[in-house]
Write a structure and sequence with these properties.
The chain is of the alpha+beta class. Helices cover 36% and strands 23% of the residues. The chain has 10 helices and 9 strands. A 7-stranded antiparallel sheet has the order 1-2-3-4-5-6-9. It has a two-stranded antiparallel ribbon with strand order 7-8. A hairpin with a 5-residue loop joins strand 1 (46-51) and strand 2. Helix 3 runs antiparallel to helix 6. The model has no long low-confidence stretch (mean pLDDT 93).
């Protein structure tokens, strides 16, 4: 399996964090798309590279559609330099802005990589991740050191059919990644993930979780950057074997219908509740196609479907876990 090959030394603390984060997400995207293409006989990722006006950054949306293994897979990187309106600043943590006059727009920098993969086979799970670095800059010195900074991210798994061994493999690798940095990370970020990806109007989780965190700035940024890299590099060993194992598994029309219904729930969460989608669409110059890349190619809504309610069914087995999240990598 190919490994990321960044263009700079990511441990070189003499380089600005923003420079190293950009190098990391670029190499991460290239590594992931190259490896996922190995699971496709013919389909490849199409790159849509764009520059933001006025030297405000760049992006690269790489999307694969209508493949034999993946109905839709997208991996985006985005680097933005822009300004936050006072209204946007007030939605953030107030303690970061005790130096702010309350009126000025604030320059900011963000670099991140996001991914969503929707396999064709109902037995292969959907997955999502996002890892990002954010800086708030001084309006009087926008090229100087940040006035505030933080990391955010996470990876979560959304199967249509529950395979406990697959779930344990996925959670176990992310627990190991967390434990290498702080034994308290996994239980904290797993609970945060279960809470964040809950669909209130359905009373169920979007999937079986993983890890999720935001506003992470509680220790040396070098330590947190190593943590972010470790988690994002865990994606391939955690997910690739699951798709390789399930992509050619036989499935029925009933199982495909259930997958489509579960994708409907995925769409509901992303459009109604997801903060990242809302933030992206509220930007001054939103790139809507890239922001909505996370949506599946196909989905289904039925009025009061009975599938998922029959005791003893595979579908009900999943629903029980979605309504009461389970510990897949118990903390000793």
């Amino acid at each position: 399996m190919q490994q990321p090959t960044p263009e700079v030394d990511l441990d070189d603390a003499s380089l600005p964090m923003r420079t190293r984060m950009v190098a990391h997400v670029k190499s991460l995207q290239a590594c992931i798309t190259t490896n996922l293409e190995q699971l496709e006989p013919e389909a490849t990722f199409h790159s849509s590279y764009y520059l933001r006006d006025g030297n405000k950054g760049f992006g690269d949306s790489r999307v694969l559609q209508d493949g034999e293994t993946f109905e839709k897979a997208g991996c985006n990187i985005s680097v933005i330099r822009s300004t936050l309106s006072p209204a946007a600043v007030r939605q953030m943590r107030a303690e970061r802005f005790d130096w702010w006059d309350g009126k000025s727009e604030l320059p900011y920098f963000v670099a991140g990589c996001s991914l969503v993969v929707h396999p064709r086979n109902p037995h292969a799970p959907t997955i999502h991740f996002n890892y990002r670095y954010f800086e708030i800059l001084d309006p009087a010195d926008p090229e100087g050191p940040p006035k505030a900074w933080w990391f955010g991210g996470g990876t979560d798994l959304t199967p249509s059919y529950l395979y406990p061994d697959d779930a344990a493999h996925f959670h176990g690798l992310f627990k190991s990644a967390c434990d290498r940095h702080d034994a308290g990370y996994y239980p904290r970020f797993k609970q945060w993930c279960d809470t964040y990806f809950f669909i209130p109007h359905r009373g169920e989780s979007r999937g079986i979780g993983g890890i999720f965190f935001d506003d992470l700035a509680d220790r040396d940024p070098e330590d947190l950057f190593r943590f972010i890299r470790d988690c994002s590099n865990t994606f391939l060993p955690a997910y690739y074997p699951l798709v390789a194992k399930r992509k050619d598994q036989e499935f029925s029309a009933h199982e495909k219908r259930w997958q489509q219904l579960r994708r409907g729930r995925y769409v509901e969460f992303n459009l109604v509740h997801d903060r990242g989608t809302k933030f992206g669409l509220a930007m001054k110059e939103p790139r809507t196609e890239s922001i909505l890349m996370s949506l599946p190619l196909t989905a289904r809504w039925e009025y009061e479907p009975d599938v998922g309610t029959l005791a003893g069914s595979r579908e009900k087995e999943l629903m029980d876990v979605l309504k009461s999240p389970k510990e897949w990598a118990p903390v000793s």
